[in-house]
Write a structure and sequence with these properties.
The structure is a single chain. The protein has one domain: Jelly Rolls. It is built from five helices and 14 strands. It has 254 residues and is an alpha+beta fold.
């Protein structure tokens, strides 16, 4: 799997793009600097103390959605030009932000995020490429809740949404994936994985004394259309089914 060290202008090379298209995942080290990661980490901790936790009483993680609309510092991260440029290059099409979220695994949370795909949860149609930029704001070794992927599993489309708390749910709908190779990617603060919206992925429990803090920006094909289905970030916005997400909540980037 290809790992890229970014240049100051973050040019994603063709080898990285090709590997991403094949595997559905790639890593970019230092997509933001350690100093930026520390600044954004502090903002994330502050937001987590006042924002609504959309994961509720889940033991898996705490989830804070659309933090870019609530905090000016985290807005810089969600709209960060390095991250947007990489996402656009990997997708190969113009993209817009679907939403961001903080995913925080508390210390000793004891619960894995089980294998699942992201796209089945979203009210999207006609998307050519959607992907997530998962940025570590603290060091994330395996024991703190890093991600594991099943390379190539993004070719499994049309599956129902899977249960993040059920270790066998994905494999009930796609039994062949149980036997595929898995790729675990520990990250240092400032590193980022990009993964396709259909790529199966999981995360280990946080077994350490410190929280795992990750910021995720989800990008969708700018021409993706709304199905009319329910979702916390699109409900109540007056969107028209069959039309693109042309709303200020979903800015074009890159």
């Amino acid at each position: 799997m290809t790992t890229t060290e970014p240049t100051p202008t973050l040019i994603v090379d063709e080898e990285t793009i090709s590997a991403y298209r094949k595997d559905g995942v790639t890593t970019i080290r230092n997509v933001i600097s350690p100093e930026e990661a520390a600044r954004f980490r502090d903002a994330a901790i502050a937001v987590s103390g006042i924002a609504s936790d959309y994961a509720g009483s889940s033991a898996i993680f705490n989830q804070y959605v659309n933090v870019w609309q609530q905090n000016d510092v985290l807005r810089e991260l969600t709209l960060h030009p390095n991250v947007a440029a990489a996402a656009t290059a990997l997708a190969g099409v113009p993209v817009r932000v679907w939403h961001d979220h903080l995913l925080i695994k508390p210390p000793h949370n004891g619960a894995a995020t089980e294998f699942h795909q992201d796209a089945p949860y979203w009210p999207h149609a006609g998307s050519r490429q959607s992907l997530s930029a998962w940025i570590a704001l603290v060091d994330v070794p395996v024991e703190r809740g890093c991600m594991t992927f099943i390379p190539g599993s993004h070719h499994h489309q049309g599956l129902r949404a899977q249960d993040l708390a059920d270790r066998d749910d994905l494999f009930r709908v796609a039994p062949d994936l149980r036997w595929e190779q898995r790729l675990t990617i520990p990250l240092r603060a400032g590193d980022c994985t990009f993964h396709n919206a259909y790529l199966a992925h999981s995360a280990t429990p946080n077994l350490t004394d410190d929280p795992r803090i990750a910021h995720v920006t989800i990008y969708i094909d700018a021409d993706t259309t709304y199905t009319g289905g329910g979702h916390v970030v699109s409900d109540g916005l007056g969107l028209t089914p069959g039309q693109p997400f042309a709303h200020e909540s979903f800015p074009k980037v890159g």
